[in-house]
Design goal:
The complex is a heterodimer. Chain A is of the alpha+beta class. Chain A contains seven helices and six strands, in the order H-E-H-H-E-E-H-E-E-H-E-H-H. In chain A, strand 2 and strand 3 form a beta hairpin. The N terminus of chain A is likely disordered. Chain B is an alpha+beta fold. Classes of the chains: A alpha+beta, B alpha+beta.
Chain lengths: 226, 385
């Protein structure tokens, strides 16, 4: 070609040589593939599912689950029903209702948290945007069911999974999150302690002042009577 | 009998004054294994010869652009995976590139290298799968496709470890990538790249000298360069005709100007050249991959200032384009300062490349139509959006 800078020579391919030579070459290649597929793993990397299963990579993601601290999902759920995942979810498959007490005050936990996994497309954006380290992507993939409606909508009972499960599924991520949460908690505790100390100091100061004032008043009163 | 007003046009093949009613009208598709999805061609035949051909598409229309205008910029990212589902990572990159252009976000060095590595692996996947599908269109359904998919699966395993999913990667973010490379990933990638060259040698030995393939593809579906350029054709189809146009070279994006690679060009632009050019491009991709794996630096995989929640680009518009495996893939975005784009438009390469189908097919046999359609390399998810 004219533009020698870009040209890559096409080689001998595409030209007729001895008639039938190309066909024989092709037959040789497929014959080699067939024979080698019996003893070379890279020629036939087939896994006989469901008898044997491939290892799941730690990054593998499927439908989401909700993480809870402690033993009971009723108390330990990290989710605060803020609704960020509901808004960001591309196919809009998350449905959240905030739990409220009798006065209508928000309890900062979900009353209803449904994920319709027939709509969910496993993108992982909910896990990414969650500011409370609550929602993560699961590794469960055998989820076929005979029911088209109820069983494909995961409620809180099926979504809530413990931190141990998360640790088992993705140890690296779970450890990082644990450390982050621990640090945040310690910081919070330290801040609370500092606040308490400050409050205590302020209270002491106030008490002292009040005492001084009282003494002064008493002195004044004493002086007044004299 | 199909009554389609589009078919009532003149045809260069038809003789003056001949009787239109003598032609055989065939609806090829939409459920036809050779159409790569749900794509229909209304063909008018004079014996075996194609007189007119009208493509009919839209069966897979998913309203992607309008949906994207109603949701945040980030939420559209997983939908871009589903455009051209053979190569999701280049789609991700094109969209991220457009948004970065719109918002003026800098991408860290390591993320750029990660993008190049994943994009070139995607090119390998696409071209390898193309070789298999192309042979399938010719009736060699089996060996070639199986060998191609076997190698593709090895790359998809790498993608699964990196992005969490084989095909629906959702990996790029505005200002970098979602997560860092897992431990040992680069070594596995290097091993794969080293093993790919022997596979390509074998595949070329398997296919490119085959007399049947040569007889069926050479001098089939040629078009003059001017027609291709005027039709907006990009990618391997254009380069097979000898036009030196590769966005990685003519309008370098990312860090492509750092790599040493060539742009293979064909001579005739027939179906054989289109197959050949893809094999040559795979070798160039391997070259880029080797350099990128060697040079990748440590550092951030996403810009520290990048925002995941509450991303609002300034008012403006941007068109970001990259060289996808199938051609120029572009995203045109108009922002009005809100979290949702005001206008979101995709320029899909396989859709634009499909527009010259009639010009390529008229005058040839009906059997050649299938090969020509295969050589365009379409994915209906991208054509219909």
């Amino acid at each position: 070609m004219k533009d020698a800078k870009h040209q890559e020579p096409a080689g001998k391919a595409g030209k007729w040589t001895i008639p039938g030579y190309g066909l024989l070459q092709g037959l040789f290649v497929s014959g080699r593939n067939m024979v080698e597929s019996y003893y070379k793993k890279e020629r036939c990397p087939v896994i006989q599912y469901p008898e044997e299963k491939a290892d799941i990579s730690p990054n593998f993601r499927n439908f989401p689950f909700l993480c809870y601290d402690g033993d009971r999902p009723e108390t330990g759920l990290r989710c605060t029903a803020c609704g960020i995942c509901e808004k960001e979810c591309p196919p809009q498959c998350i449905y959240i209702v905030m739990d409220r007490d009798e006065n209508g005050k928000a309890k900062k936990r979900p009353k209803v948290f449904d994920i319709d996994i027939s709509v969910c497309m496993n993108c992982g954006i909910c896990a990414e945007v969650c500011p409370f380290d609550s929602i993560y992507m699961d590794g469960q993939y055998e989820m076929a069911t005979d029911d088209r409606f109820e069983k494909l909508v995961l409620g809180l009972d099926r979504l809530a999974k413990s931190t141990d499960y998360h640790m088992q599924l993705r140890p690296k991520e779970a450890t990082a999150v644990m450390e982050k949460r621990k640090a945040a908690e310690e910081k919070k505790k330290a801040a609370a302690a500092a606040r308490a100390a400050k409050a205590k100091a302020a209270a002491e100061k106030k008490a002292k002042e009040a005492k001084e004032q009282a003494e002064k008043n008493a002195d004044d009163a004493k002086g007044g009577t004299e | 009998m199909i009554s389609d007003p589009l078919l009532q046009q003149s045809s260069p093949v038809l003789e003056e004054g001949s009787d239109d009613d003598q032609l055989l009208r065939v609806s090829l598709g939409p459920q036809h294994p050779s159409t790569h999805g749900v794509f229909r061609m209304n063909v008018e035949l004079d014996g075996e010869t194609v007189v007119r051909l009208k493509p009919v598409f839209g069966y897979l229309h998913r309203n992607h652009e309008k949906i994207a205008e109603g949701q945040t910029y980030l939420s559209s990212m997983p939908f871009t995976d589903r455009l051209d589902y053979i190569c999701p990572l280049t789609n991700n990159w094109a969209y991220a590139h457009a948004v970065e252009k719109l918002a003026g976000i800098e991408v860290p060095e390591r993320a750029e290298y990660m993008r190049v590595i994943t994009a070139e692996l995607t090119r390998l996947i696409n071209h390898t799968a193309f070789a298999g599908f192309f042979l399938g269109d010719m009736g060699a359904w089996g060996s070639a496709l199986m060998y191609a998919f076997r190698e593709r699966e090895k790359i998809l395993d790498l993608f699964e470890d990196l992005t969490g999913a084989r095909m629906m990667s959702n990996f790029m973010r505005f200002g970098g990538c979602r997560n860092d490379l897992p431990d040992g990933w680069l070594e596995r990638c290097r091993a794969l790249v080293d093993n790919y060259e022997p596979f390509l040698d074998e595949m070329e030995m398997f296919l490119l000298g085959n007399e049947i393939l040569i007889a069926r593809t050479q001098d089939v579906g040629q078009l003059p360069k001017e027609t291709l350029i005027n039709g907006g054709i990009t990618g391997p189809m254009l380069r097979a005709a000898g036009v030196a146009y590769d966005i990685r070279k003519v309008d370098p994006y990312g860090i492509y100007d750092r790599f040493d690679f060539k742009m293979p060009l064909g001579e005739k632009g027939d179906c054989y050249d289109r197959l050949m050019i893809r094999f040559l491009e795979m070798r160039e991709s391997l070259k880029i991959l080797k350099q990128a794996i060697k040079d990748i630096p440590e550092g951030d995989f996403i810009a520290p200032k990048a925002k995941i929640r509450g991303f609002k680009p300034p008012v403006g518009e941007a068109y970001g384009r990259i060289e996808g495996p199938k051609g120029e893939l572009g995203f045109y975005l108009v922002s009005d300062g809100t979290p949702q784009p005001y206008r979101y438009r995709v320029r899909p390469p396989s859709f634009v490349n499909l527009t010259l189908l009639e010009e390529m097919c008229v005058g040839l046999d009906i059997a050649d139509v299938v090969i020509i359609l295969g050589s365009v390399d379409i994915v209906l998810g991208e054509v219909d959006r």
